[in-house]
Amino acid sequence: MSNEKNNRLDTLRHSCAHLLAAAILEMFPEAKLGVGPAVDNGFYYDFDLPRTLIPEDLPLIEEKMKALIKQDLPFEKEEVELNKAKELLEKAGQDYKLELVKDLPADEITFYKTGNFVDLCKGPHIKSTKELENAGWKLTKIAGAYWRGSEENKMLQRIYGACFQTKDELKQYEEMMIEAEKRDHRKLGKELDLFVFSDLVGPGLPLYTPKGTIIKDELQKKVEKICRQYGFQKVSCPSLAKIDLFKISGHADKFGDELFRVSSQGGLNFVLKPVQCPHQTQIYASKMRSYKDLPIRYMESDKQYRAEKTGEVGGLSRVFAITVEDGHSFCRIDQVKEEVMNMVKIIKDFYSEIGMWGNHKVSLSVRDYDHPEKYIGTKEDWDHAERMLEEISNEMELGAIKHEGEAALYGPKLDFMFKDAMGRDVQIPTVQLDFATPKRFELTYTDENNESISPVMVHRAILGSYERFIALLIEHFAGAFPFWLSPTQITIIPVAEVHNEYAKKVAKELAAFRVEIDSRNESLGKRIREAEIKKTPYTIVLGDKEENDQTITIRTRGTKELVTQKISELIEILDEKTC
Ligand SMILES: [Zn+2]
Ligand SMILES: [Zn+2]
After folding, report:
1. With respect to CATH, is domain 488-578 assigned 3.20.20.80?
2. What digits encode the pLDDT tens for the residues 355-400?
3. 324 phi and psi, to 5 degrees?
4. Which of 122, 297, 323, 456 has the highest local Cβ count within 10 Å?
5. Binding-site annotation, residues for Zn(2+)
6. Superfamily classification of domain 195-234+307-476
7. pTM strictly above 0.85
8. Is Phosphoprotein a UniProt keyword of this protein (predicted)?
9. CA–CA distance from 6 to each of 11, 13, 122, 399, 565 (Å)?
10. 3-173, which class in CATH?
């Protein structure tokens, strides 16, 4: 979407929020208003109300909003002087707005009036409420939200709305939401028995079941197999470290309260690692390195820990223990280009396997040129690094779009954005140049002239956190994983008890795959249906005919068709799907 179109849509959405506030004030004249911004897919407005809202309130509020739209009311701007603004808000009892106005520059205070409704707001808005007549909008939910996002403040009631240019777009969005609910990884994770939570273990700490562990391990094997082809070696580091490690890396500052601190009675004090890079620098630092040794590439799939405040209950999207697939290359400046190109190839290989490559965008995240003080490192290093990433984008035809101010603290990066099956943007893989960390840890190598030089560190994430990635995959595939990722690849169903022995024989021949025999005393139809619900790629049914002919009857996921063939024929097909 173009920026201009985006801005127009945001204006429409935010204007709709004004009408929501106006409607609320009609219902509750004593309501105090918080903020009401445009957000993805719509808007919200926060209110301090005399009673708790119930879902039945939403249609009533919508009716009031519709009436305001019909009246074709203009949005009238009025610039107000600070003291006057305070006076107006005080008189109206709008304590929250009063708090906001105190933070505003005195010459930038504007009120917007729509009918009887007046709101402190900087705009912009649509010209008249009538512009919302053909738009598609709807109030969607009620939630709680702390004033200014701080737990120390009062909890307000937030009403969310969806808002689009047209009614058709709203309809599409609603259909997408229904689909998203069906695919919700929390729901499917339970149905497919992939992960669980325990009150005794604690919130935000998912436990992978045997089936979920298979998915995690298969992903890890896939990433590591690809990375090994590009010279990555696996390392393994402990979860703890002295805080000094993260003081040097800058992460102690960056994560502050989000660090978990661990101490023993014997006086040992550690923190749980919030990232993996600093540990890995110490493997590099353990030896003298020569220019001939570089590049040195390490990869690791391990847990890192962050005490994030907001926890999404029962889901994998926000957890305290995050399993991260992380990797770094320590290299010479003349090797950076090839290293980055290799990492892009790894990302391409991996996402091709998942079936997402091709439907992606790449962003070249560079400095905010007006504020060089926000970054670590010299101007020369930055110029060089940004130029290099641009060259790579051109040579590899990535079509990276430059985004100023999006670089990491220590260097520019290439970010990859994919679309999932529901059209949602997913930004995971990234390749980042880092000149600063090696200097902070005084990492060196000796060059041809025996001089001590700092290597460059290239960070890369392929799938990022396993938890987030598995949540994404569950929703992307709606639980119907590709064959190589499916926890159970084949379910064998003997028609009757007499076929159990033959079922075992077939399972043995298919031992290279993950096979389950369902010989429960349930009807054939029920067992087939359950295999379908579990989204097993192949279901094999074995009866008299199959046993006599030494064949198998196969049903492929998503089809009703049954095919009878020799076991060897199936193995041939499956071998191709696993490699
Ligand atoms: Zn406004
Ligand atoms: Zn890193």
Report:
1. no
2. 888 878 999 999 999 988 888 778 888 898 899 999 999 999 999 9
3. -115, 135
4. 456
5. 277, 328, 459
6. Bira Bifunctional Protein; Domain 2 (3.30.930.10)
7. no
8. no
9. 9, 10, 18, 22, 55
10. alpha beta
